[in-house]
Amino acid sequence: MADSTSSGPASDDPLRLDADEADAIAELFNIGMGEPAAALSSMLGEEVHLSVPSFAVSTRARITSEVGGELEGDQPVCAVRGAFTGPFTGEAMLIFPERGTLALVGRLVPVDPAAKAPGEMEQDALTEIGNIILNGCLASLSNLIGGELSGAVPGYGTGAPSAVIGSATDPVLFVRIDMALAAGDASGHALFLLDIASLDAFREAIRRALAGL
Question: What is the predicted pLDDT for the residue at 165?
């Protein structure tokens, strides 16, 4: 991933975070995802593997290219997403390719083996999973930073990555965590896209969280 972190002072570029800040972001989101991932593992009866969170100043167009480039062919993605507000604002997304979605929710609801795309029941199951992961992470982050992050009720959507993530070229703060079931038949991403105007508030939240750890 193209990374806009830097080992130099953050003041060199207002859109850059230094190495310590980037490490702190990874640690906070790692902690924030721990409890909801454990809850999902318990619900599915299977371990959910998480990658180390990665952070960059990027664009929706570039994020779409990265996520879409990892899919087979033009496979649509299924997404659960919702805006959040608080000390910093943005949008949280849980994204899985269609086949991975069917494998994931098949742990919870009966799925027709011939199904090519999620039906209403499968969509509801993924939405519930997204609610657990995304709002669970936001709740954990709220405790860590000492300020409430309020997430909207997540909604379901599907389509090409560009339709789901977007194609805007304005900079966004981007945190990505890859997720995969232990069996290997379902993998996706938890994405947190933060408004660039929130950078200073985000830095302050990081400092508060580090002081409390």
Answer: 92
